[in-house]
Amino acid sequence: MSSIYSDTVKNNTILALFIIGWSANETNMMDVHKEAEQFGDVIVISQPDSYRNLVIKVFSAMKYHQSFCKNVDYLFKVDHDVIFFPDHFFNLERKGYFHSTEAASYGNTWKKAVVERDPKNRWYTSYTQYPKDLYPTFTSGPAYILTKNAIPKLLDAAQYRNLVMVEDVFITGILASDTRVKRISYPNFFYKYPRITVEPKEIL
Asked: Is 80 helix (H, G, I), strand (E, B) or coil?
């Protein structure tokens, strides 16, 4: 994976880690372990790799932060289909857009989102898990930033809540609300490139 890293990552300004769930496919797991041995950039959790277990992956990243690098200012949660530009982030931080001393999550925030009650929906949440009809304000899941002072608060609060499998809602919404971790909306946090369809002959 090191071939995809920017110079910022290669120069150790940022540590990039891939959080991967367990797979029953032995070939896949062998490839994962080879990757881990070669680059040291993989954390494998003991749960199956699935969307519903994404929340466990993020908790694993937060626990890693607390165990091995808790003085690191920020933890970036980035989905596999999202491109993160670290140099752009550092430029914005120097301009004062982000503050590591705050207990906060940064990203695109959602307000008054309706709780999904359909068991067939991927975002299903039962009344036992969360009884209210609306979620608290949360930071949208494709990518968000947690500050170092937010992480221990969120981990502590999780001990007193039923687990909600919708990761961004649970971590940056419910737990953040319980602990008064700020959810700060940063305009244009995401830039969506227009979808382009290319015929094979156009590539040659």
From this structure: coil
